[in-house]
Amino acid sequence: MSNNLLAGKRGIIFGALDENSIAWKVALEAKKQGASFTLTNAPVALRLGAIKKLGEECNATIIPADATNMEDLEKLMTQSVEILGGKIDFILHSIGMSINVRKSFPYTELSHDNFLKAMDISALSFHRVMQVARKLDALNEHASVLALSYIAAQRAFPGYNDMADNKAALESIARSFGYYLGKEKKIRVNTISQSPTMTTAGSGIKGFDKFFIYADKVSPLGNASAEDCANYCVMMFSDFTRMVTMQNLFHDGGFSYTGVSEEILNSLVADDDSASA
Fold first, then answer.
1. How many percent of the chain have pLDDT more than 90?
2. CATH assignment of the domain containing 61
């Protein structure tokens, strides 16, 4: 359903790779709600993904940019403002990559060189995006800047590896930069801690399918889908959330505040009964 929540707003969406990407769903919903935007991803991701199809569907220009490269980001911001006809009202940072995860290095034996690369791509890129936007004065007053996170930033999730540290840094950057952008131009900066979602990136994490099932059983509302997350992002881009900033917002069906569910307890009791029999 379209309510034109983003009518007249201009944005930049990072990270759409294929139809399973949360950023892809956000782009579709933002278009439905009246926004215009550019799409961006690293050149290698653009070659591997299907983003051209999304660009055509959303009438959005695709601008290649390495989010760890300041010159690329400056070109992205400058071209986006020119193409869209004005300053930017919202940005979605949906970027995350860990070589240690891809190579199945255990957390206790990870490569620190890989760790630094993952931190640069997954967290410091968020700082770079806001630093460049501020330098170029590319954001309108009351703009909304979002990044996608995960609860492993606060709690130990074996198998999530160095991505947990990357997400913790991401959330800290949102708070720290959010203060300055808020004081200067009333710009909001938040992170959304999403349920485990079957994206291309998520499914590469060891044991992710078990994370997904466990979270779904614990959460009173079940796991939030990528479509649900897209709706939430659109709300955060809209004028209805102008006073929300520097927050990590849990969008996980209640998982983050549920100690244990009856379903999990009952399954443990059933296992004990089977062992006793």
1. 81
2. 3.40.50.720
Say which residue the tokens 């569907």 belong to: 57
Task: Give the count of alpha carbons within 13 A of 255, CB side only.
Answer: 25
Q: What is the 3-state secondary structure (H, E, C) of 115-182?
A: HHHHHHHHHHHHHHHHHHHHHCCCEEEEEEEEEEECHHHCCCCCCCCCHHHHHHHHHHHHHHHHHHHH
Per-residue pLDDT tens digits for 9-21: 999 999 999 999 9
Contacts of 262 (CB under 8 A, 6+ apart): none
Establish if 158 belongs to a structural domain. Answer: yes
Cα–Cα dist 268/217, whole Å: 13
- pLDDT score recorded for residue 276: 47
